[in-house]
Hints:
- This protein has helices spanning about 1-10, 25-35, 50-70, 80-95, 115-125, 135-145, 155-165, 175-180, 200-215, 230-240, 255-260, 275-280, 295-300, 310-320, 325-330, 340-355; strands at about 20, 40, 75-80, 95-100, 130, 150-155, 185-190, 220-225, 245-250, 265-270, 285, 300-305.
- By secondary structure, the protein is of the alpha/beta class.
- The strands form three sheets. The protein has a six-stranded parallel beta sheet, sandwiched between helices. It has a four-stranded parallel beta sheet with strand order 3-4-5-6, sandwiched between helices. A two-stranded parallel sheet has the order 1-2.
- Helix 1 (about 1-10) crosses helix 16 (about 340-355) and helix 9 packs parallel to helix 10.
- It is globular.
- It is an enzyme of class 5 (isomerase).
- It comes from Geosporobacter subterraneus DSM 17957.
Amino acid sequence: MAPVVRALQDHAEIESLLCVTAQHREMLDQVLELFSLKPDFDLNIMQPGQTLSEITARGLRGLEDVIKEVQPHMILVHGDTTTTFTGALAAFYQQVKVGHVEAGLRSDNMYSPYPEEMNRVLTGRLAHLHFAPTEGNRKNLLAEGIKDDVILVTGNTVIDALLQVVKKDYVFEDERLNQIDYANKKVVLLTAHRRENLGQPMVNIFTAMKEIVENNEDVEVVFPVHLNPKVQELAHGILGNMERVHLIKPLEYEPFANLMAKAYLILTDSGGIQEEAPALGKPVLVLRTETERPEAVQAGTVKMAGVEKETIFSIAHSLLNDTKAYGEMANAVNPYGDGKASFRIVEAILKYFKAGQ
């Protein structure tokens, strides 16, 4: 969302105010610092051990107060977080128009990704303008009865942000990452954290990764391990004593983006990485049974590897050893845009209000 905020701030016809819930305090603060953004309103709702219901309740109450004070013409929400849904719902309760950035993504399984899928669906019912990253996202919205004239295909703003922070000469704070021989090693970047993968699916993922390293002498793995104790225990139990596996602390956005740019192959259960990595020419294997980003699969930048050990190993091992198959994925056209989505969104908002809607 940072490029959108900047584009709004740079436009003379728009007065923009930035409100954050701080649903995830640490993750938010490093991005605000990176993009030199200062919120006008910070609800600071994060609490230890918070539940989805608590996030929803605190976010809704805090946003209601902000909306009453500011009385905006429109509220922009992004993506699929609980903050996204509560932002749209709070706006609806105050009869304020909603613009949904990154609209129209669907997995068609309400529990995967959870709770993100239903956050998107419910936000879609409350939005007045829908900024869809791809044509496929637009078709999803049309199928749900959204009128075509309030949908704009923009590309994804995550690409705008990514291209602003990746640098060829980037130096990591973690010296272990600087010492990796990216030119001569096949560096595999792994991320795994989703609720639905906790338990046996995650055991399968980590065991497959162990076998990939054992069967490919030129492979090194970097795994920023999620702070969830269950993820930590499994990761260190299965991968902790392997010489070519680097278990590191979670990375902030800028170093992570630059690590993606240096990696050879990415295995992830994340959503956004499925869009970001292809923009850098990096093939992605998705460690989930479905994805709300099918355009990447159709474009050939992403493959579904699922959560079964044999399948993950087979697909990854093939890509690591078949240069033709790897090249086809690495050179496929990223379907998520050209880095100019933010400007299209601002222009669409102006057009919407100038038309008297």
